[in-house]
Design a protein that fits this description.
The complex is a heterodimer of chains A (282) and B (268).
Chain A lengths: L14 H39 L3 H9 L2 H34 L5 H7 L2 H4 L2 H12 L13 H26 L2 H9 L4 H30 L2 H6 L10 H10 L3 H33 L1
Chain B lengths: L4 H31 L3 H8 L2 H34 L5 H13 L2 H12 L6 H6 L8 H12 L1 H14 L2 H8 L4 H30 L2 H7 L9 H10 L3 H31 L1
Helix pairs in contact in B: 1-13, 2-13, 3-7, 3-8, 3-10, 5-7, 5-11, 7-10, 7-11, 8-10, 9-10, 10-13, 12-13
Classes of the chains: A mainly alpha (282), B mainly alpha (268).
Chain lengths: 282, 268
């Protein structure tokens, strides 16, 4: 769902005619409305954020970004996000495979449940995980305020990305190739590694990139379960929030700009993966 | 893939076990904990004045943000798919941006623009409009985080249906508005509906961005997700669970709507 690109190239033969239907009216008014809306809602606030981060000059910006606590938070955020993206990709392929190729009762319910983390408020996700893995755990496993709990929360909220990126590709995948390989004597794992996985790779990567991007910025599900221990379980988004609360807007803005840069890099990477994927199709 | 029965079964066990540990069991436990003190206690806890005001504020914010985003989303999708302007990639990148930015950063950016010392804050205060620590700021934050949903659902549908019918209508003398209302809108309605459901879910559940700009004034700027956090931090566990359950019911309704709409969209 979220993995569908808005950027797919327009179908040939339609673009030339669309100029007439869109017409000057739509182009002029529509572009005006969209640009104005995006400027007020998105670009102007981000510009204010960037300006604020440089309030004390470049050296103050650098000091905020490279303070020991900020660096520790950023390192942990990036590391845990990479781990989450990888686990999410592996689990995503397994779950998508089960949903597409396997038969078992209740498959449609499971398929619907995958989207639950998208529908569920992030703070509720955090509370839910705390109920099982928190101080009052019925199974006696208290993971609250550990780095593992942060990963758990991030895995929860990013679950749909991995599955929903891979699922449609797996449905469309031509099974003749696999049958041919099987008739030539290839084993199940070999077929998966040599035929299925290469075909799924662009989708897996784009799902992983989306999960990573989401994990880096995630706040609501992490804020309670992480315990926000500096140099341990503190992630960048919570660090920024604490800086805002202690009235250090400039420092918060500086770290925000770094996170923003990571997001932008991720978006660019996603574009590259998506265009690679669509080239793969042809 | 022609997996062996053992291979098939082990993948199934892994996939379903993963889902059980991450989703099903935690949700089951939280539901049990919620209703442990009895249904009456839950109802009492979600009908306190603070909870009722949080509920209505959440609905109010969604009711403003979602329609605005829907109109913007349709117009933006039309611009992206049906016009040929330069720099479209840039437009797409900016529209996708809210998905990639941390909610806290979004909240901070709005705070720095509309706050006491922000670029627009003092002017707006002179006009008697308070944005930060008040409802307008929370609406802006919600619009920001929900921005891409409708566009992302509508643009692919527009691309897929093509514009032959629109052209035919135009040839037969329909005005642009008539063409949109009679041809385009019916064709994209399921996409729009799906986008609306996704934005509504996100608008109701948004925590990070709203949390930064709300100021958490009890009874005034506390939404349901903020109430959950507030109660949990004040060690009112059962209260937090009850408010979570209310949000979870909304989430389940959303999920149901998503499933139904997906099927409608597919059968088109």
């Amino acid at each position: 769902m979220a993995a569908t690109a808005v950027t797919a190239p327009p179908k040939p033969g339609r673009t030339s005619a669309s100029r007439r239907v869109g017409g000057r009216g739509l182009t002029g008014l529509g572009v005006g409305v969209v640009t104005l809306w995006l400027s007020v809602i998105v670009l102007l606030p981000l510009a204010a954020l960037t300006a604020k981060s440089l309030d004390g000059g470049l050296s103050a910006f650098w000091d905020s970004v490279t303070s020991r606590q900020a660096i520790a938070a950023l390192k942990f955020t990036l590391a845990v996000s990479v781990i989450v993206a990888v686990i999410n990709a592996i689990a995503g392929v397994a779950i998508a495979w089960t949903l597409v190729r396997d038969e078992f009762p209740g498959r449609r319910v499971v398929n619907a449940v995958i989207d639950l983390p998208f529908a569920m408020p992030t703070i509720v996700a955090g509370i839910t995980l705390l109920a099982l893995w928190g101080p009052k755990s019925p199974v006696g496993v208290n993971l609250a305020f550990t780095q593992v709990s942060v990963a758990l929360a991030l895995l929860f909220v990013t679950l749909p990305f991995g599955v929903r990126a891979v699922q449609p590709v797996l449905i469309e995948l031509d099974r003749e190739m696999e049958e041919a390989a099987a008739s030539l004597g290839a084993s199940g794992p070999t077929i998966f590694r040599r035929i299925v996985l290469p075909n799924l790779m662009p989708a897996v990567l784009s799902g992983a990139a989306l999960a990573f991007a989401r994990a880096v910025g995630e706040f609501g599900s992490v804020v309670l379960i992480s315990g926000n221990k500096p140099f341990d379980t503190q992630v960048s988004s919570v660090f920024i929030f604490k800086q805002i609360e202690s009235d250090n807007a400039t420092g918060a803005a500086a770290v925000s700009v770094v996170l923003l840069a990571v997001s932008l890099l991720m978006l660019i990477a996603l574009r590259v993966i998506e265009s690679w994927g669509s080239r793969h199709d042809r | 893939m022609t997996a062996s029965p053992v291979g098939r079964l082990s993948i199934r066990v892994f996939a379903l076990g993963y889902l059980a540990l991450l989703l099903a069991i935690p949700i089951g436990v939280v539901l049990y904990r919620t209703f442990e003190p009895g249904v009456g206690a839950v109802i009492d806890s979600i009908t306190t004045p603070a909870a009722v005001s949080a509920f209505w504020l959440t609905i109010e914010i969604a009711a403003i943000a979602v329609p605005l985003n829907t109109i913007f989303g349709i117009v933006a999708a039309l611009v992206l798919v049906r016009t040929r302007i330069r720099g479209k990639w840039l437009l797409q990148a900016v529209i996708d941006l809210p998905f990639a930015i941390s909610p806290v950063v979004i909240g901070l950016a709005l705070f720095l623009l509309f706050g006491r010392t922000g670029w627009l804050g003092p002017t707006l205060t002179d006009w008697g409009i308070q944005v930060i620590f008040s409802v307008p700021g929370m609406v802006l934050a919600t619009i920001f985080v929900c921005l891409p949903f409708v566009v992302r659902e509508v643009a692919p549908v527009l691309r897929e249906i093509g514009d032959e019918q629109e052209q035919a209508a135009a040839t037969l003398g329909a005005s642009r508005w008539q063409t949109f209302r009679r041809i385009t809108l019916p064709a994209i309605r399921w996409g729009v509906a799906y986008g609306v459901v996704l934005s509504t879910a996100r608008a109701i559940g948004e925590f990070g961005a709203v949390s930064v700009v709300s100021g958490k004034i009890s009874g005034e700027t506390v939404t349901l997700p903020l109430l959950v956090e507030n109660r949990y931090s004040n060690f009112d566990l059962s209260g937090a669970y009850a408010a979570s359950a209310l949000l979870a019911v909304i989430a389940l309704a959303t999920l149901l709507a998503m499933t139904v709409l997906q099927r409608k969209g597919d059968s088109r």
